[in-house]
Design brief:
Blueprint: H1 10-21, H2 23-31, H3 46-77, H4 80-113, H5 125-137, H6 141-162, H7 178-202, H8 210-234, H9 236-243, H10 247-266, H11 273-300, H12 305-332, H13 339-362, H14 365-372
Length: 377
């Protein structure tokens, strides 16, 4: 049975949609960056490399805070088993749909038209399975992570709901300032970095195991952001820490983004580059929650037909943008000499075709269901 809850907050819907759509400039800039990807331009662009790094540094941490917020909001609205069913339907059905319709065709595109899988015939069985999982999950990893966090939160949210509002648990009770929230995220990131280094010493091959990365490492990294989002719904004062503009968060985020870019391009694994990456992205992620929430609350907290359209379209557009980006990179990028022009034309190419496909899919009830997980009436 549904329970009454507060009205949905438009700015969070808008932010979540824009974060999803940022996946398009992220992957397009990856083509023109100095990072090795499935497809790359002949010469990398420093500007687009920095753009790619900046988007990658904070986007998904903020996304999972919002996901935790909305997930717990629905948990307060539904009976727990009904909540689990609804949440898994809306996440797992698009995930399972995207495998045969998007990532399997994408796999053959990579194998036949890029250098990504040029050694496929020389792989042993384990390597083929491992690489196959990497490529089939691909950009759908966040849906898989949401499925896992939803299952874990079935038990976590039950505990959160049982907490009386005047008996705040540790460490949430200590998170009375944004600095203290950042401190506990920093402690978690140290633990996670230590786990990374330990695995690297004991069994380095495990770090390259696709299932272990997707199921364990990714889920563990984003779990605290997801849970903080849930607590932000339960405790208004915690949400206000993210809504009140903080110049310290803005400056701190800027410095951490600079540190992230420097660590990406000037540091090596021998000097704890992956571990520093974990610490930096954890801190910049939580500080950018404040920057994004406060600016979004000021600019986007109103109902808009245009934004509602983007909110409804964002998941589908994100799901189909990746193969479109690969097609653009494999067949069109080599024909354009200018990186800047290629990037801009890529945005036009991917956005226009993705929204065209969205309009087509809206007219087919079965596709609407498969890509949203929502019953069609």
């Amino acid at each position: 049975m549904k329970k009454n809850t507060s009205e949905r907050e438009y700015f969070l819907d808008s932010i979540r949609a824009y974060l999803m759509l940022l996946g398009i400039p992220f992957h397009l800039s990856l083509i023109y960056s100095s990072h090795q990807w499935a497809v790359n331009s002949y010469t990398p662009s420093d500007t687009l490399t920095v753009l790619n790094d900046v988007i990658h540094a904070f986007r998904m941490q903020v996304f999972f805070v919002i996901s935790g917020y909305f997930s717990y909001m629905l948990y307060e609205r539904y009976e727990s088993h009904r909540w689990l069913k609804v949440r898994l339907e809306r996440v797992a059905i698009p995930l399972l749909t995207a495998f045969p319709l998007i990532t399997i065709p994408q796999f053959f595109l990579l194998k036949n038209f890029t250098d990504r899988l040029q050694d496929w015939d020389n792989f042993n069985l384990y390597e083929k399975i491992n690489v196959g999982i990497w490529e089939l999950v691909s950009h759908l990893w966040f849906l898989l992570t949401l499925c896992i966090l939803t299952c874990v939160s079935f038990f976590i949210f039950k505990k959160i709901k049982q907490i009386k509002k005047n008996r705040i648990p540790f460490p949430i009770s200590r998170m009375t300032t944004l600095g203290k929230v950042s401190f506990y995220i920093f402690i978690f990131s140290l633990f996670y970095a230590l786990l990374q280094r330990t695995i690297l010493i004991i069994d380095p091959d495990l770090l390259f195991n696709s299932l272990f990365n997707f199921v364990v490492l990714q889920s563990l990294f984003y779990l605290p952001f997801f849970v903080i989002g849930a607590y932000a719904f339960k405790y208004e004062w915690l949400k206000q820490l993210f809504l009140k503009p903080s110049p310290y968060a803005f400056v701190g985020s800027l410095l951490l983004l600079i540190a992230y870019v420097a660590n990406q391009h000037l540091n090596t694994k021998a000097y704890f580059s992956p571990e520093l990456d974990t610490i930096i992205t954890s801190l910049v992620g939580i500080l950018m929650v404040n920057v994004v929430f406060s600016s979004g609350h000021y600019l986007l907290n109103s109902h808009s037909v245009r934004v509602t359209y983007l909110v409804n379209a964002s998941l589908f557009v994100y799901l189909v943008h990746h193969p479109l980006t690969l097609i653009y990179g494999a067949f069109i990028t080599p024909r354009i000499c200018s990186n800047g022009l290629g990037f801009l034309l890529g945005l036009v190419f991917v956005f226009s075709i993705a929204f065209m496909l969205y309009e087509i899919h809206k007219r087919v009830p079965l596709l609407r269901f498969l890509f949203s997980g929502k019953p069609q009436h």
